[in-house]
Amino acid sequence: MGHVLATITTSVDGYVTAPDDGPEAGLGVGGERLHNWVFGGPWSQDSAPEPGTGMDPASEAYMAQITADLGAGICGRGMYESSGHWGGRNPFGGPLFVLTHRPDDERPDPSTGFFFVDGFDEALVLAREAAGDRGVSVNGGADVIRQALRAGVVDTLAISTAPVVLGAGKRLFDGFDDDLDLTIEAVHTSPWATHVIYRVPR
């Protein structure tokens, strides 16, 4: 069984979206600054370049480290919807299991690599089965990350902190009261984010 990685980007004050996030503004109004590191600088949700275009060497090294040997992923319905379903093209290199309370909604075509699942536990079982000996990535939103941490299944937590203060939005650890001592495995510093990879006690 492979490892489980949880990864997300936050502001300095701990927000993973700015206010008013939704289908028209997946990271909230002004929240696209959180992901400047993905594109190597400022970008627009209306005209986003291909992810990774212009990414600086430190961010490339971080991405290479956390994405090595991944075989499947899990994300929330909000992330799936706000991304515009990634244009119907799965960018994760393996099946992506989308957590939703409405699994019987119009389902994605299985050929896209997207699958609706009702519940984190079921999603993890399916993702591990699909990944085999490779790892499983747990992506946004914040609630999905918290569920994975509470379940005690996360081996590695990778947090990119963008040099912005949003003041409001959705916080990564809202309502999370578990006590965790993390071990820093690696730090990659770029002009657009500080990427820290933590080992999570199991």
Automatic annotation (TrEMBL):
Pfam families: RibD_C. Gene3D superfamilies: Dihydrofolate Reductase, subunit A (3.40.430.10). GO terms for molecular function: 5-amino-6-(5-phosphoribosylamino)uracil reductase activity. One of its GO terms (biological process) is riboflavin biosynthetic process. It comes from the Bacteria. Residues 3-185 form the Bacterial bifunctional deaminase-reductase C-terminal domain. This is Dihydrofolate reductase. It comes from Nocardioides anomalus.
